[in-house]
């Protein structure tokens, strides 16, 4: 009896993560058709085309200004451009795999049949999420050779590749979970897709405009601040606001990495001469997106449970 009870949690965890039938069903259905390979081909083709355009533009601009190409600048610009395009593509590809995951089962009238199994609601939602993230992870891995081209020019460290990969994975994870949440709330895949892409567009484009306005206001406020405590509070507030956007997080993290040579904490000198310790933005970004992912996952599970009732 004791041995049986002790092995149940392991078997349950293994079943939810590795032997989930929803994961196997979704992955087999996605990889059997031509859609997965077409998306992967188009994705890499777009990245390759943009990388070529960035290389030509930067090399010509560097040659005109200094008479010879600055290979370090070409490498950094090429790497940053590829990551930016990759982030833009992933932000819109990842929700596409989950926005119709549950609502599509209703439209095809297979949801009731799926719920007659002994699969719990959390395993259903987790299976949908893992199957979509597995393919997104494949897209991110396939783009690493294009990012590695920057190593031939120099100016890019392995740490930048790892941090960019972490930011891309966390962005795709949150957007995929949001897609499942709206899919569980909507009866039609079209409405779920519209809500998901509206949210993704706000985070990708709308939020940077708001963040830029806030950063401008806070930056102008620094000149009139006399209290070190108030300046520290504004610095932490500005850092948190910037950490809510993946693009701003990636740019600021790269700047801190190149300027301070650190990926963790670094020292910052206030206007009064005092020194404070700040955190690299990728750390609060990762924590924030993990928390939001868990929140939307729990909301999705509760929504699926409410549908059953």
Computed CA radius of gyration, to the nearest angstrom: 23 Å
Rounded to the nearest angstrom, the distance between the terminal CA atoms is 34 Å
Report the uncertain regions: 1-11
The shape, in one word, is globular
Q: Write the element-wise H/E pattern from the N-terminal end onward.
A: HHHHHHHHHHHHEEH
Number of strands: 2
Helix content range: over 70%
Q: Which strand order do you get reading across the main beta sheet?
A: 1-2
Average pLDDT, to the nearest integer?
78
Tell me the structural class: mainly alpha
What is the count of structural domains? Answer: 1
| Tally of contiguous helical segments | 13
Specify the biggest β-sheet: 2 strands, antiparallel
Percent of residues in beta strands: under 5%
Give an overview of the whole structure.
With 309 residues, the protein is mainly alpha-helical. The protein has one domain. The chain has helices at 2-17, 21-32, 35-66, 71-98, 103-107, 111-115, 121-148, 150-153, 158-185, 189-222, 228-242, 246-260, 282-308; strands at 265-269, 275-279. It has a two-stranded antiparallel sheet with strand order 1-2. The protein is globular and about 65 Å long.
